[in-house]
């Protein structure tokens, strides 16, 4: 039986208004707030270097979810913003909340996907590892490449890569770095920059079953402790974030979420998946 992404996100978002709808749902809202503050910190850095003039750039947010990044770009006065998502419930909610912005219900993984607009900045945050079929994931990247205005356009992906493929569940697959880079190349894209998002603030995944099993057990216990204890959860998250900051500055290499900036290749012919 194939995985129905639309049904999954409709069920997950049903009744949830906080960050557990799109983040680490077992850690509670307070812990997730720290996770997403770190995401915004890195996003600010990348935008200042790659896409500073948000007011005049055309922006696509693919997998806009509960609107966390919609709110971010709206505060940045990014008025040429388009949110795309597979969930009709999500799209309808955001249309009511931001009637001045554009929202489209679509499936970016389809071969017949067509979007007439071209964009200066495309955001693809924590979506790729939910596209568990490699062919559809490649097609998504090909479609996104076709949405980029020119060689100066940028695609920013938040993803988690491992040394080898890790299938966590029906709706999550962490691909190997080699597989990810092969897809990027086939889609006519190339990496221009990358930043580590986390070391331990969210569970790292090494690609080795025994190690990953032990790590998953530790974080499961952590979730039980902090889920309904907002103060404790926030304190834990702030402490781990400080640890992450030190380790990232030291150049510690532990596989976890990262921000990856890409642009269109100038000479590579784009192929479908």
Describe the fold and architecture:
By secondary structure, the chain is α/β, with parallel strands linked by helices. It has a domain at 5-21 and 37-198 and 254-264: Rossmann fold (3-Layer(aba) Sandwich). It is 41% helix and 18% strand. Helix 2 runs parallel beside helix 8 (230-250). The model has no long low-confidence stretch (mean pLDDT 86).
Task: Report low-confidence residues grouped into runs of 5 or more.
Answer: none
- Beta-strand segment tally: 9
What pattern of helices and strands is seen along the backbone? HHEHEHEEHEEEHEHHE
Q: Strand percentage, roughly?
A: 15-25%
Q: CATH first level of the domain at 5-21 and 37-198 and 254-264: which class?
A: Alpha Beta
Shape descriptor: globular
The biggest sheet, with number of strands, parallel, antiparallel or mixed sense and barrel status, is:
7 strands, mixed
SSE class: alpha/beta
Q: What does the average pLDDT come to? A: 86
Please give the order of strands in the largest beta sheet: 3-2-1-4-5-9-8
What name does CATH use for the topology of the domain at 5-21 and 37-198 and 254-264?
Answer: Rossmann fold
Helix content: 40-55%
CATH architecture of the domain at 5-21 and 37-198 and 254-264: 3-Layer(aba) Sandwich
CATH H-tier superfamily of the domain at 5-21 and 37-198 and 254-264: Vaccinia Virus protein VP39
What is the C-alpha radius of gyration, as a whole number of Å?
18 Å
Distance between the termini: 21 Å
Number of helices: 8
In short:
By secondary structure, this protein is α/β, with parallel strands linked by helices. Helix 2 (29-50) packs parallel to helix 8.
């Amino acid at each position: 039986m194939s995985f129905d992404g639309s049904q999954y996100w409709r069920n997950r978002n049903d009744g949830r208004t906080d960050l557990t709808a799109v983040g680490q749902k077992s850690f509670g809202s307070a812990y997730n707030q720290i996770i997403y503050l770190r995401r915004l910190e890195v996003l600010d850095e990348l935008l200042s270097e790659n896409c500073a003039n948000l007011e005049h750039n055309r922006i696509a947010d693919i997998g806009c979810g509960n609107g966390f990044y919609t709110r971010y770009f709206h505060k940045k006065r990014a008025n040429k913003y388009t949110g795309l998502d597979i969930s009709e419930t999500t799209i309808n909610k955001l249309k009511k909340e931001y009637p001045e912005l554009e929202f489209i219900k679509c499936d970016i993984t389809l071969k017949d996907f067509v979007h007439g607009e071209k964009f200066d900045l495309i955001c693809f945050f924590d979506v790729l590892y939910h596209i568990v079929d490699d062919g559809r994931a490649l097609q998504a990247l090909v479609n996104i490449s076709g949405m980029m205005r020119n060689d100066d356009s940028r695609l920013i992906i938040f993803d988690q890569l491992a040394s080898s493929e890790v299938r966590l569940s029906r709706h999550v697959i962490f691909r190997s770095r080699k597989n990810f880079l092969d897809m990027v190349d086939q889609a006519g894209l190339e990496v221009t920059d990358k930043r580590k998002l986390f070391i331990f603030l969210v569970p790292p995944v090494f690609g080795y079953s025994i190690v990953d099993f032990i790590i998953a057990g530790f974080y499961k216990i952590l979730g039980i402790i902090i889920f309904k204890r907002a103060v404790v959860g926030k304190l834990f998250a702030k402490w781990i974030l400080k640890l992450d900051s030190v380790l990232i500055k030291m150049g510690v290499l532990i596989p976890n979420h990262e921000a990856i900036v890409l642009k269109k290749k100038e000479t590579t012919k784009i192929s479908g998946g």
